[in-house]
Description:
- This protein is mainly β.
- It has one domain (129-343, 403-753).
- It contains 8 helices and 41 strands.
- The protein has a 21-stranded mixed beta sheet that branches.
- A hairpin with a 3-residue loop joins β24 and β25 (429-445).
- The chain is elongated, with a radius of gyration of 31 Å.
- The protein starts with a strand and ends in a 27-residue tail after the last strand.
Amino acid sequence: MIVFVALVLLFSAPSAFAQFELAGISGRVTDPSGAVLAQAEVEVKNVETGTSVTRTTNSDGLYSIPSLRPGHYVISVRKQGFETVSVTELTLNIQDNVVRNFQLQVGAASESITVTADASNINTTDASVSTVIDQSYVQNMPLNGRSFQDLILLTPGVVTQTPQISQNAFVAGFGLSGEFSVNGQRTESNNYTVDGVSANVGAAAGGNMLLGSGPTGSLPASTALGTTQALVSVDDLQEFRVQSSTYSAEYGRNPGGQFAFETKSGTNRWHGTVYDYLRNGFFDSQDWFNDFYGQNEPVLRQNDFGGTLGGPVRIPHVYDGKDKSFFFVSYEGLRLTSPQPTTVSSVPDPTTRASAPAPLNQVMNAFPMSNGRELLEPCDPSTDPSCPSSGPTPGQKPSGLAEYIATWSNPNSINSTSVRFDHVVKERVRLFFRFSDTTSSAAFRLGGASSSGVPTDGDISEYSLRTYTAGVSSLVTNRVSNEFRINYSANNTTERNVIEELGGSTPIDLQKLVGLGPNALAEVDFCPFQCGILLQTKESGAQRQWNLVDTLSLSLGRHQFKFGADYRRLMPFAIQNNPGATYNYFSQNSVAANSADFVDWQTYAPAYPLYTNVSAYAEDAWRASQRLNVSLGLRWDVNPPPGVTQGLKPYTLLGSGPATWTLSPPGTPLWHTTWFNFAPRIGAAYTLRDRQGWETVLRGGGGVFFDSGQQLGSQSFNGPGFSAFNYNNFQPSPFPGTPVFPTISNPASLADQF
């Protein structure tokens, strides 16, 4: 549980109007004496689409028009016996709640006064602190790789932590850890939405899916390169808002930043773009390490290309969608050949390769041929006759390993497609549907100081994300409106290691040589004092989400009530490489005799966790006076322990400490559901000065913010009952021999697992 209390004096953008991406306008209409005007007609018209919404003021002269898409608007206020007032060039950003008061002059309604809206929209309604990144930033800021991480960092209080780096090295990477910390919160505590539905559908492959926070819906979707096209392509992005603190009861589940993204839709005008961003390493200077080792500069090529097209839906002689039906299509493709600076890896030396008998010699020949110095290992001349006691290297002898020095380029690609349709049913019902499909691939070769692998081992990650989102915005009555969203998302990932030709090597199918299938792990380690490792494997994982969100707004006098519910069902799965066989050779003599010093056989079961999240809230935005606005709310979050959609159920421990721990029956809940996570929120905004250009608002707020607490729940699916291991107990074993794969059994006690 986290409690925030803030008192701020701010000149900032308006606060969120709803959990969805939509904005709203509210205010008061008075006559020249300041008396309120009831039943005045307020019309808001979207300049781009021609759609309009009309409301009338209540007995307090107040009006409220929610559920407006971000864009440019004209507001017109009319009442019999008074001149019509129009405000033009009013811009609504994502989740804005703009307050516009009107004073009508006595006169004929046919007479009108037109006013141009001022550029600043100050939040005068609640205590939330947020930043809007609109089209002016999106179009004009240089973005490396067309990914908008740099735009997110424009928000005060946001710092980045690359997902590849974590305090725990075992849970670092895409789909395992987050990227942005907001006001000191954990990187896994942020909530991302696109068009009003959850975009926290990050995933990883195989066992990695069970180590981090991806299965629990605590991480946003990303491409295999770690870029944001999986959320929304830059040219498909209308704008986004980051709420960093003291937000209302509409927001929760995660107590960190609330990231809301709005996609573009079509307008009455046909509009399109075509682009290609190029980068070529021909004119780049040589890398220092390449010069040092005498290596050529590897190839750098980058092409980021695509286009958009939007407009009204028209079928000649059949249907004209002007002012009613619109479409928007976006495509972005990336082809990146990324250079790898000079890398030094450890590989078997010529003597080791020549000494290996069949079939182990095929494995040794699949390593690159050494082109650097021999690696020496320490030895004791008094006990080892082959260890020199004098000469240039006393106390050191050849280890059987040598250096392989090389550069290369890694291929990467992204294809991101989005199609959106919007339709207006009269002025009270608006529908939209959006489909997005983003596939990506990232490849790199193992090897170097940070890896015991070798460059003939290629690691290929492939991500495929598809989302289906539909929404209905309804103006039920003059006082009641409703927003509904439904989404299904499927994020599939695979990671495989393949053995390729490089540096004079001869590729092999190591899995087939060991007698295993394409989803197994086959690994040979040559580790006299440091390691050269060759492996072949494939594993997969996925995140699948259903998300339903509904918000009902009710305007009564000076009160704007909102009631909402959010249901999310997550159905991830992880399929690890199964079975697995690892052969370890600790000396050149072991290779010559084809006698593996240590052999490990593994069996893994697939995991199918099930997570559900249920949230509900009620909120009252009260206009206490002309200058004071108060918001009160209560949020309720329920986050049960994980279940399963199929397959095995996890174990947990019972007892008060290590001395009393016992293994529970399978399927015992990992924790007891907390049914009383009620989170009150309060905020206030007081307008100290409303003079145009000098607006000053004092805002403060506080509340209770719960996290889902589910981030580590999936680790139980990688424990007892999901894996089994068998060893040769350091008894010499030939390669490949006859693998002895263990059978996974349900342990009767904690001791049976070890």
